[in-house]
Design a protein that fits this description.
The protein has 131 residues and is an alpha+beta fold. It contains four helices and six strands, in the order H-H-E-E-H-E-E-H-E-E. Helix content is 35%, strand content 18%. The chain has a four-stranded mixed beta sheet, with helices on one face.
């Protein structure tokens, strides 16, 4: 007999099964077109009809793709007249922040995971508010 762990449920379970164990389970990614905008342009959210089986693994894969697509790769010329880029460094940092936000969240808490993607910054939130 194999028992499913909480981690296995969170990572690979269906949303309805996850919320049976973690009633306040919430993952939310919001992408905005401007730093001052109040209306999101794109969203991935647990419980949304567009993502009926969302778990941590599927959320990670969906959001990482969106984050990578939104990291700019501007032309920057170095002092030696060669092109330099920090694009890959930003993607690695954002990926690490996403993993840390999801892995170190307290899923029995009162507040879920929220990731805000704006043109000039990312905001990763996984507040711990115990019941």
């Amino acid at each position: 007999m194999t028992l499913l762990t909480d981690g296995g449920l969170l990572f690979f379970g269906k949303y309805i099964s996850i919320t049976d164990r973690f009633p306040r389970f919430q993952l939310d990614y919001q992408q905005y077109n401007s730093d001052n905008s109040t209306n999101w342009n794109d969203r991935v959210s647990a419980g949304d009809m567009n993502y009926p089986t969302l778990n941590i693994f599927s959320f990670y894969n969906l959001v990482l793709t969106k984050i990578e697509a939104n990291v700019p790769d501007p032309f920057i010329q170095g002092s030696d007249l060669s092109r330099t880029s920090y694009h890959n460094d930003l993607i690695i940092a954002a990926k690490e922040a996403l993993v840390n936000c999801l892995m170190h969240s307290y899923y029995d808490g009162m507040v879920g995971v929220k990731i805000v993607d704006r043109p000039s910054y990312f905001e990763f939130t996984n507040l711990v508010l115990c019941a």
